[in-house]
Amino acid sequence: MNIILLGPPGAGKGTQARRLVETRGMVQLSTGDMLREARSSGTEMGKKVAEVMDSGNLVTDEIVIGLIEEKISGGGDGFIFDGFPRTLAQADALEELMNRLGQTLDAVIELRVDDEALIDRVTGRYSCAKCGEVYHDRTKPPAKEGVCDLCGSTEFVRRADDNEESLRQRLFAYYKQTSPLIGYYHCKGKLHPVDGMAPIEEVAASIDRILDSLDRG
Ligand code: ADP
Ligand code: AMP
Question: What is 27-87 written as a DSSP string?
Fold first, then answer.
């Protein structure tokens, strides 16, 4: 089964994707993570995208489609597309790629979250520097303060773009370029909206119900 997690920045896509990796053995493909990796490795492409990411705008379709193609062209399934596609051109490219690989896209889970809640989520977000587990100052602190629940590391990082100013631009990009995908996937009969305002475990349970019903065919 291959799915897309769709939603604005801070909606909980990464949090839910990581959980599905743990519980269902799926493979998380986050274009945001791939781009952050590229920028920290200092490649030409990394340098090119760093400024765009910090401003809250979208990186070019060509670059992100290339990154995804590299990851999935080896075959397999169980992919969770997290933060991709973000434009109609990316959605078309994904469909073409999946057809070429004989794969199907089974569901698009849309996480619905109010704008005010997104500001709080994004400005309170941090993650483990070692394993990437995602935390929040208020809604999801580690069980033991300053220690990662998963790997025990005591080092954490905050994203350069997780501030109100960049979020405003990222939201603008979301509504202008990404939200048309909601209608697109609705027309294709693949859209499954989920209340992303609920606590993490409740959102997870809603997603499980959708995936279980698809599994049962
Ligand atoms: P996205 O990948 O969509 O940008 P994240 O999964 O990184 O979003 O979540 C953004 C922030 O909100 C993180 O700090 C995370 O711990 C927190 N968070 C995620 N889901 C929820 C939820 N359902 N309720 C409260 N906080 C949440
Ligand atoms: P994310 O980690 O998903 O919040 O993405 C962080 C930033 O990476 C975004 O604000 C964009 O600049 C860039 N980015 C991630 N995924 C994409 C994508 N599919 N298309 C274009 N830009 C992307």
Answer: EEEEHHHHHHHHHHTT-HHHHHHHHHHHHTPPPPHHHHHHHHHHHHTT----EEEES---S
User: Over the stretch 89-121, which tens digit does the pLDDT of each residue have?
Assistant: 999 999 999 999 999 999 999 999 999 999 999
Task: Please tell me the distance between residue 81's alpha carbon and the centre of ligand 2 in angstroms.
Answer: 12
Active site residue 24: no
Q: How would residue 87 be classed by pLDDT, with cut points 50, 70 and 90?
A: very high
Contact (Cβ atoms closer than 8 angstroms) between residue 124 and residue 139: yes
Pocket of ligand 1 (CB under 6 A): 7, 9-15, 121, 124-125, 134-136, 139-140, 198-200, 203
For ligand 2, atom 19, which residue shows the shortest CA distance? 84
Structural contact between residues 203 and 195, judged by C-beta atoms closer than 8 angstroms: yes
d(C-alpha 195, C-alpha 71), whole Å: 30
